[in-house]
Amino acid sequence: MTVKKLMTENKLLGPFLKWAGGKRQLLPEIRRLIPLSYKTYFEPFVGAGAVLFDIQPDKAVINDINDELINVYKVVRDNLAELIEDLSKHANSKEYYYQIRDLDKKKERFNNLSSVKKASRIIYLNKTCYNGLFRVNSRGCFNVPFGNYKNPNLFNRMALQAISEYLNSADISIYNTDFEEAVETAGRGDFVYFDPPYDPVSDTASFTGYYLGGFDKNKQIRLKATVDKLTQKGCKVLLSNSATSFIKELYADYKIMPVVAKRPINSAAAKRGSVEEVLVLNYDSNIRISY
């Protein structure tokens, strides 16, 4: 069994996208719960990669159902120079923003874009749209309005280079599939971190634009069944979610740790701020856990 991090820590590694539900705020709590040793790290809902880039495992399987996001990871890994060149061409204007945003309204035209152009578009939209949201409508078209920022920083060249080097030097497999399929090869001694779309704290709080079709309670139940299977296989599993009664009852047979996180990304300003969440784990840790 390998130690959790064999590579020299690179402090330049970190999320290069704004992302709803990102784990920057919870990193201190998550870091304390990372197993001291494991074989392969699995993250089936990788998002902006805050946890991945924090623990920097030497062997990992990362996945996300968002094909736009996964394309960005692959382009940063494989075509960084071309990506940086294209990012440098973008303009920070409302008219230009909507031209770029609306490219996906005609699917044939959009599908003909290169992987580099698609990745550049998503990074540009992410850094210039309102509040850094990723949201699509029922037709799968990006629909977040212009953020009207005076001088947005589209990219950090050194940070992107560090991420590209890490994705190339470590043994990192990148997938775009269902979370259950992403962990099929996980076995005894592996470590899996789940950060799914959260169970909504109210009937109006569900954020479904990122996950076409939503991530409803049936999917939460299927995720719990996946955690059960991984536990039976001898995997160490850590999961984050909202502190709803449904989630706490669903994972009642596991250890539950309450945490407080700040959520700066929300379409409604009144819903940003400190919120209670939970970390669920199936292994012993040195942290006192109670509810």
What's the short story on this structure?
By secondary structure, the protein is an alpha/beta fold. The protein has eleven helices and seven strands.
CATH domain topology of the largest domain: Rossmann fold
Number of domains: 2
The number of helical elements comes to 11
Q: Judging by the overall fold, what is the CATH architecture of the largest domain? A: 3-Layer(aba) Sandwich
Can you tell me about this structure?
By secondary structure, this protein is of the alpha/beta class. It folds into two domains: 27-66 and 176-281, Vaccinia Virus protein VP39 (Rossmann fold); 70-157, Adenine-specific Methyltransferase, domain 2 (Orthogonal Bundle), CATH 1.10.1020. The chain is built from eleven helices and seven strands. It has helices spanning 27-33, 50-55, 67-78, 80-87, 94-101, 107-111, 115-128, 157-169, 179-182, 217-232, 245-250, and strands at 41-43, 59-63, 171-175, 191-194, 236-242, 255-263, 273-281. A seven-stranded mixed sheet has the order 3-2-1-4-5-7-6, with helices on both faces. Helix 10 links the parallel strand 4 (191-194) and strand 5. Helix 3 (67-78) crosses helix 7 and helix 4 packs across helix 7 (115-128). The longest helix is centred in the last third of the chain and has 16 residues, at 217-232.
